[in-house]
Each structure stands twice: as C-alpha cells, then as structure tokens.
Design the sequence.
C-alpha cells in the first residue's frame, strides 16, 4: 500500500506526463528536415554563371545579395539563410550533378529558382523522387504547373504560353484580319511561346502567314527580317531574347517596315533593349508585363521600387539596375523569404511545399500594382496576371485591365 | 604559284608516341583497378555518381586518343557521336522498351557506322581543315536533334527523360552503385580492347599513318581504310560512352551535346597526354573537377580561373599527364638504382 | 525575284561582317600557321575598351586609334607572355592554350562590363544606302573599310620586306632563320597585327549586332569558315569567302524547304567542306605541294 506522500508524488508525476503528452503539440515544436536548424536555413540554387546563358547569372547574384540583406536584418524567425548556388553552364548533365551535390552533399532544405528549362527538366524527376522542393523555377515553361504528377515542383513567373495567349486574344479583338509574321528563337522558350500564340488564336491560326526561327549562334537576324517583310505581313511578333529583340527593332527601322510590333516580355526591358535599340525606333511597340522596370522613370517614387533601389545601393551597388534580371531576382527572393516566414518553426520540406501552395494575394515590391501572387493545392502557378503595355516616349504605358493569362482555358 | 611544304623538316603535328609508351605497366594498372573497385564501397551515392561520370568521360577521351593520338586525325566533333549514342540509348529505352544493356552495343554499332561514313569525306582533309569539318559536325548535331521532323522520337527541344535501371537479380545495392560497376566493367572491356587494337597490326598501321602518311602509303598500308576505320572505332566507343551517359544522367537534350562538350573532351585529351591511353582518366578528372574548383575559387570569374589553371597545367606539363608519369617512372628508376 | 535580290543584298551585308573577321583569321594564320580560338574574344575585349573610352568622353576617332594601338600592343604582349613559352610544345597544347585564353578573356569581359547589350556608335550613320533599304550606310562603310584593309594587307605581304619576312617565317622557319629573320619576333608581330585587325572588325560589327561579351561567338565560326573557304593563305579569298558564306546562308534559309531555315549553319558548313574536298586549299588559296 502506498503512503499518502508516495501517492501524491505519483499523482503529480502522472499529471505532468499527461500534461506534456497532450500539450506537447501546442508548445512551439520545432521540426526540421535536412538543411534547417535552430540557427540556419540552407537553400540551394543552380544558375548559368558561365557559358551561353551567363547573362542570367546576375539573377543568382541578386538573390544572394537579397538574402544577405535579410540576414543583416535578423534573418527569418531568427535563422540565417545560407545560400548555396552552383554553376551549371546551362548544361543539363552538369545541372544533374549540381542538384545531386546540393541534395546529397550540401544537404540543403530545398532548391530555389534553378534556371533554364533543360536544366530543370533534367532534375525534376530526381527532386520529386527525393521529395525535395523545386521551388519557383526560373523558366516560363508551362509544364511546371502540374501538382498532380510533380507535387514538389512549382514555377514563379507567368508562363510563356499564357503570355502569348494574351497577345493572340488582343490581335483577334483589335486586328481580326491581321497578317502575322513570327520570329522565334529555336529553343524551348521560342517554341513554347509559339504554341501559346497558336492556341490563343484557336481556329484562326491562318492569321499567321510566316514563321521564322533563328538560332542563338547566329550573329545577326537581319536575313530573317528581310524574309518576313517580303511576306507582306502587317503584324510582327518578336519571340526573342534581348540581344535579338534589339537587333530586330533596329533592322525594322532601317528597312522602314512599320508593322504592329509585339515583343516578348523577357525582352521588354527599357534599359536592356529599348534604349540600345533606340527609343525613336521603339515607339508603339506592344508587350505585357507583370513587374516594374528599373529604368522606367514612372516608378521613381513608387514605395516598392524605392525599397528595391535602396537595397541595390547598400547590398549590390555594382548591379546594373537597368537589367530586368536584377528586378526578377529581387522579386523571386522576396517570395522565397515570405514562404519561409510562413513556415515558422516547422521547417520540413513538406511544410515548405504546403506554405508555398498557400500564398494568398502576396505582393512583392517589384510586381505591378494590382498583380498578386496566389497559389493553392491545385494551382502551382504563382503569377498568372499580366497587363499589356505600349511603348511611348521613353517608357511603357500600361493600358487595359489586368488579364489573367489562363482565362482562355 | 604553289606553296611548298617540307614534310621532312616539319615537326609532326602530333607527337609520335611509341607503342610501348601508350599504356601503363602492369603493376600500376592493377593498383588503379583495385582503387576503382574498392573506393565506391565507402563513399556516398553522389560521389559514386561523379565517379560513374568520370569513367564515362574517360571512355570518350580514350576514343579521341585513339583517333588523334593513334591515327593522327584531329577531331573537334566527338560530341556529335556522343549525342548519337546517347539518343540511341534513350530512344530505344523509352520508345521501344529495350533493355538498357542491349542499347549499348546497338549505340556502338550505329556510331561506328556513322563515324566510318564521316571518315570518307574527311580523308581528303587534314589539320585545320579536318578540325573545321569536325567542328561543323559538332555544331550541326544539336540543330539536327531539334528538327521538327524528328520531334516525336527525340522529344525536340524538351529532350527525353530516361529511367535509371535497378540492380538486377534483386541485389540490395543502390541504382548508382550498380550503374557504377556496370560502367566499370564496360570501361575495362573497352580499355583492354583499345590497348590490344593499338598493339595489333591495325594499331601499327594507325601510328604509321600518324607519323608519316606518305611513307605509310608507300609501304603498302591502305591509308583510306585505316583512317576511316579509326574514325569508326573512335565514334563507336564514344557512342557507347554516350549511351552510358544518357542512363547515368537520366536525361538527353540537344543542349547537353554542344560544341563546348567537344572542346572539353579535346582539353581532356591534351591534359591527359595525347596518345597516352591511361591519361584519359586524368583528362576526364580534369573536365569534371577543375570547373568545380574554379567555381569554388571565384564565382564571377570562374571562366578566368579555369583558363589560368589550364595555362598552369600546360606550362608545367606541356605533354600532359604522360609527362608526369614518365618523370615519376624516371625517379623511381633512379631510386631503385641507389 | 525581288526576294532573291533582297536576300543576296542582305547576304552581302551580313557577309561583310564575316569578311572582316575572316581577314583577322587569315592574318593570324599567316603568322602562326594555326587558327586562334580566342581571336573573337580579343576583338570583343578591344571593342569594349573603345566603348569605355567613349563613355569617358573620348570622341569616336580618338577612341578608335587608342584601341587600335592598345590591341596591337596587347596582341604582342599575349604572344610574348603566354605563347612564346609554348613554342616548343606540341601544336595541340597550343590549341589548348588558345581555349584557355578564350575562357579568361570572356570571363573578364563579363565581369567588367556585365552582360546587358550596349549600343556602339558608327561613324557612317545608319540611313539607307543609295536609297536601298537593305543596306545601310554603315554596312556599306563596313564593306568599304574591309576592302581598304584588304588592299593594305595585300600590299604589306606582297611588297614590303616585313611582309615577306613574316611569310617566310611562317612557311619555312628554319630557312628563314638562316637568312637572318628573327622568326620569334615575326610571330609576335603577326599576333599584334591580327589583334589590331580583329579590333577593327569588332568595332565595325558591334553597331550591327550590339556589344556584349558573347558577341563574337557566332561571328568567329563564320569567320573561320569564310577564311577556309577562300583559302587561308589569301586575304582576298577570305573577303570573298565571307560574302559567299553570307549570301549562301541566306539563300539556303530562304529556298531550301522545310529544314533550310533550321539548318542554316550546318548547310553553310557542309558547303564549305564540299568545296574543300574538291579544292583542299580553298577557292583562292595556293595549293600546298608536299615534297617528300
């Protein structure tokens, strides 16, 4: 028979154990997967710092600077970000090697913003099999919005196809008997865009009277422009990267061909394309955008952009703020930080994906007013909205409503 | 007016590496073999993957060594044969459900034929001109792979995802480890084949052509046959390497096989020592690991650091790893005497 | 018919770019009997230097001349410092050296001037030439400068002692040394001249294609092809080769159905290889006679 004191101790101990067992969950329980600890979060990234696509390497540098800023301001929920970024030279086998290194050797929590459709395609199966988040991939290919088959992969920017569909709808509405000439880059970017354009035109693909592709190894695309003009088209859709977009604008002016000129968003940069090509040659060009342009003076007093400029000055002064890639890197990094903040102390990979799929009306500093990031368990397309714009003077004039690129489905 | 070229006094473009010096002694070979077999048992899967890629690139460099160091024909187009091999394996595995082991000999034979055919017009070219022709082949290949007409088979610009095989007979080892040992077996077989090829009559014919083509044909060697044969064999081996590469990386795309890759293989051959077959693995190590080292030193200037490291290597050992091995052999010989 | 003539004209305009580069390629080949992979990058770097000078306020022709001198000196310096030590090394090792040089210069250009495209001014203006909208005054100017360079080079190699010495040093170095030619310095001179010509090519090409570190990648390949087609021993051949490649490429892209457009470069290269098989020294090159 237990004494009174022993009984009290037993009761007390039982109560404590019962208390701990039931309320253990309510207390801040920290859960970690590889890469996350009490003091740090390891994020992996793959960028083409060398090779033919090295122009995009600046995105990685911007993100690295942004995470430095966050760390200087205290980190995320008290944890510092360790950003491990490797070069793949835009080569898929190298991307596979670097992805495996990040996951198996560096043991990062997730892969953030790896760049390039071929590289991301190469590592997608591996990351999904390993259940490592492949978040906010830096490509506009449409296939990243597929939570059913690839629940660990998510895009960020509006897909090329949805952007092209917007142009198609615009043309059907504003210029139904247009004769369209298309110049497109012969790679996944160009072909994806072209598909979106054709899908958007629906039954009226006959509006496209000429399609010309070019390789990035070609020094100049003048010959293609001459050929396209000879078809008598009055609309010119330029599915090109910055250098070739600028060449096209210049050539069009030289041969005095003045069709309705639409340019892809990746090449709509004021400082990176319009200025070198010559503002006087770029008047009236149409495009669409989801982010603000660092060289566009209309955003000089915008609070979001002011934060962006302040960030550049303090943490990345050598950056060229006219470069659209810098604005891009900032916005993506900000989205990543938001997701990690939402995770709180539950830094498992599963929770990271869960939070990434629960973004509601999130607005990074650099997105156009009114455009918001939304995700859900069935929608892995964070940015779907775009606004059309026309180039006038030395800047872009936004017009029309904010369009959801997927509405045509 | 024609320009006269003194064949006798002109230095040979490619070093005349004597037959004996083209391989390693037995002792060293066994040591290296032992290392290759044992090390993967103790390291992580990721390192095993890197070692598998090391062997695959070593095969490709070996093939180039046979072509350039063996028969004296300069080629900057090996990436094209590698791509054909890779796509052959990928297409057979994904579209026709062929067992991965079978795809390798098929890839090898197809690439052999392809190389043999390419060797025909290449007969009339040499030196810079052959370099340009092979360069043209290497730049053409990605564009051919992207062609719309082939898109159903090749996946076009998106490429094809390849399924990695599991270890057979229910062996409890990881996919990576199984693939490594499989690749090792294939590599050893090809290495032995290559060594024997170079020691055989055909090998002697290659080297005769390399050293002095006119003298060789004067001696009755069928120069045309052997030159195209060299191209064929080299392409065949590169094709097998390509097939293995496709399986290891689990993905093929036109962007994986650009002229940059062909140039890397060339650099691998030079660093390993032109014509020195064992150097192929040193060359492969250079291709895989030095860019990583350069990146570690400076991300912004990784290309420049790579270039500087390359320069250092070619200043110190212009004849590549073979020079290092010869110096080492010399030292060991001296020590033995004392 | 109009499309045909248009494409020929456009081909001549693009061909002028290739012809320029081909001249630099021939120059280096005359000096060292080999092609230098880093030629394009050196030209790009020189063009960047010119651009930077203009950013600092130096007027066009001043920047042009300073860049020319800088490139000449730079070419000689690179040869003396990096390639003279490799003179005894096998040729393949030298080629590896060219590749290393390429990597270094390309990386440095990217770091110093970043990858956004830059406008490069032209002294010839960009209005239509003689009313034709297909060739701008700049492109006509480019053809003109290429012709002038061609004539200068021709005179240099044919009628000056230095030119003769350089040709001798390249083709028969032993004999050249026996007659007192300093073959080592001839090579350095060749490098300097090739770098200078390359910088002119770069400054002419940049207004058309826009200046950025990877500007010359495509151009260099076409330049090689054009030089080989025309004959590596003939500057005249190089220029003709450049125009031919430009024209043929455009025509192939326009008229070969289906794949013509996607395979412009391989078709152009295939043409060149075919020509080489028939005429191994190129269209205007001197046939090499091998004396056993």
Sequence:
């Amino acid at each position: 028979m237990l004494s009174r004191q022993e009984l009290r101790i037993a009761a007390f101990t039982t109560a404590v154990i019962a208390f701990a067992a039931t309320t253990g969950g309510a207390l801040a329980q920290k859960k970690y997967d590889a890469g996350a600890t009490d003091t740090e979060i390891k994020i992996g990234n793959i960028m083409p710092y060398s090779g033919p696509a090295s122009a995009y390497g600046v995105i990685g540098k911007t993100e690295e600077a942004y995470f430095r800023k966050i760390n200087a301001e205290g980190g995320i929920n008290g944890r510092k970000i360790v950003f491990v970024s490797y070069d793949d030279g835009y080569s898929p086998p190298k991307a596979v090697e670097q992805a495996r290194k990040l996951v198996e050797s560096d043991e990062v929590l997730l892969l953030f913003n790896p760049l390039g459709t071929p590289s991301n395609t190469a590592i997608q199966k591996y990351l999904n099999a390993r259940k490592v988040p492949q978040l906010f991939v830096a490509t506009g290919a449409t296939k990243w919005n597929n939570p059913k088959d690839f629940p660990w992969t998510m895009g960020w920017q509006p897909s090329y196809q949805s952007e092209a569909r917007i142009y198609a709808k615009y043309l059907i509405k504003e210029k139904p008997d247009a004769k369209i000439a298309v110049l497109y880059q012969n790679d996944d970017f160009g072909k994806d865009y072209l598909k979106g354009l054709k899908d958007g035109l629906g039954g009226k693909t006959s509006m496209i009277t000429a399609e010309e592709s070019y390789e990035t190894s070609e020094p100049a695309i003048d010959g293609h422009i001459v050929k396209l003009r000879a078809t008598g088209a009055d609309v010119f859709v330029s599915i090109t990267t910055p250098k070739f977009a600028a060449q096209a604008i210049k050539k069009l002016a030289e041969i005095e061909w003045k069709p309705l000129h639409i340019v892809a968003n990746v090449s709509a940069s004021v400082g990176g394309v319009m200025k070198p090509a010559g503002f006087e040659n770029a008047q009236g060009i149409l495009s669409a955008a989801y982010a603000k342009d660092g060289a566009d003076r209309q955003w000089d007093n915008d609070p979001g952009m002011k934060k962006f400029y302040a960030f550049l000055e303090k943490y990345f002064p050598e950056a060229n703020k006219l470069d659209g890639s810098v604005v891009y890197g900032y916005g993506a990094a900000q989205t990543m930080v938001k997701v990690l903040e939402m995770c709180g102390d539950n830094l498992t990979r599963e929770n990271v994906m869960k939070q990434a799929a629960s973004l509601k009306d999130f607005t990074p500093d650099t997105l156009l007013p009114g455009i918001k990031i939304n995700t859900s368990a069935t929608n892995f397309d964070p940015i779907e909205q775009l606004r059309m714009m026309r180039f006038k003077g030395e800047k872009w004039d936004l017009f029309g409503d904010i369009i959801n690129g997927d509405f045509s489905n | 007016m024609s320009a006269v070229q003194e064949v006798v006094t002109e230095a040979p473009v490619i070093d005349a590496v004597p037959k004996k010096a083209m391989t390693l002694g037995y002792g060293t070979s066994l040591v290296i073999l032992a290392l290759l077999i044992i090390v993967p048992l103790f390291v992580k899967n990721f390192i095993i993957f890197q070692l598998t890629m090391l062997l695959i690139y070593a095969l490709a460099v070996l093939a180039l060594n046979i072509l350039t160091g063996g028969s004296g024909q300069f080629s900057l187009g090996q990436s094209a044969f590698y791509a054909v091999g890779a796509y052959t394996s990928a297409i057979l595995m994904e579209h026709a459900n062929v067992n991965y082991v079978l795809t390798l000999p098929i890839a090898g034979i197809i690439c052999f034929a392809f190389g043999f055919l390419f060797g025909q017009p290449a007969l009339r070219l040499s030196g810079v001109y052959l370099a340009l022709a092979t360069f043209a082949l290497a730049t053409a290949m990605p564009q051919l792979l992207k062609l719309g007409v082939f898109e159903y088979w090749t996946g076009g610009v998106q490429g094809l995802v390849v399924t990695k095989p599991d270890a057979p007979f229910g062996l409890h080892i990881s996919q990576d480890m199984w693939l490594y040992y499989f690749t090792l077996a294939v590599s050893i077989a090809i290495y032995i084949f290559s060594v024997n090829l170079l020691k055989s009559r055909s090998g002697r014919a290659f080297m005769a052509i390399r050293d002095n083509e006119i003298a060789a044909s004067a001696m009755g060697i069928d120069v045309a046959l052997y030159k195209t044969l060299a191209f064929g064999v080299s392409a065949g081996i590169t094709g097998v390497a390509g097939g293995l590469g496709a399986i290891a990386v689990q993905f093929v795309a036109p962007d994986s096989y650009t002229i940059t890759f062909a140039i890397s293989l060339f650099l691998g051959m030079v660093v390993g020592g032109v014509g020195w077959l064992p150097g192929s693995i040193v060359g492969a190590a250079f291709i895989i690991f030095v860019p990583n080292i350069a990146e570690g030193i400076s991300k912004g200037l990784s290309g420049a650091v790579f270039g500087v490291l390359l320069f250092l290597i070619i200043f110190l050992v212009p004849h590549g790893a073979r020079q290092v091995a010869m110096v080492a052999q010399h030292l060991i010989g001296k020590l033995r005497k004392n | 018919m109009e499309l045909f003539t248009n494409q020929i004209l456009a081909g001549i305009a693009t061909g002028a770019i290739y012809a320029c580069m081909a001249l630099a390629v021939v120059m280096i080949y005359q000096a060292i009997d080999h092609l230098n992979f880093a030629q394009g990058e050196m030209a790009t770097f020189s063009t960047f230097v010119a651009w930077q000078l203009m950013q600092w306020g130096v007027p066009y022709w001043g920047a042009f001349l300073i860049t020319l001198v800088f490139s000449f000196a730079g070419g000689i310096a690179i040869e003396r410092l990096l390639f003279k030590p490799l003179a005894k090394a096998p040729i393949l090792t030298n080629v590896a050296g060219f590749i290393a040089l390429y990597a270094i210069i390309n990386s440095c250009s990217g770091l110093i001037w970043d990858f956004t495209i830059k406008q490069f001014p032209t002294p010839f203006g960009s209005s239509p030439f003689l009313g034709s909208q297909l060739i701008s005054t700049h492109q006509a100017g480019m053809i003109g400068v290429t012709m002038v360079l061609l004539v200068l080079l021709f005179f240099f190699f044919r009628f000056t002692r230095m030119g003769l010495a350089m040709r001798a040093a390249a083709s028969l170095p032993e004999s050249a040394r026996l007659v007192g030619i300093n073959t080592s310095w001839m090579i350095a001179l060749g490098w300097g001249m090739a770098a200078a010509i390359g910088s002119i090519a770069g400054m002419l090409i940049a207004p058309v294609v826009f200046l950025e570190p990877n500007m010359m990648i495509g151009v260099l390949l076409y330049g090689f092809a054009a030089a080989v087609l025309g004959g590596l021993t003939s500057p005249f051949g190089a220029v003709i080769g450049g125009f031919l490649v430009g024209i043929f490429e455009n025509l192939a892209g326009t008229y070969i159905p289906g794949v013509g457009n996607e395979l412009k470069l391989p078709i152009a290269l295939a043409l060149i290889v075919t020509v080489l098989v028939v005429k191994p020294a190129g269209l205007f090159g001197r046939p090499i006679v091998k004396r056993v």
About this structure: Residues 223-249 of chain B form the longest helix (27 residues).
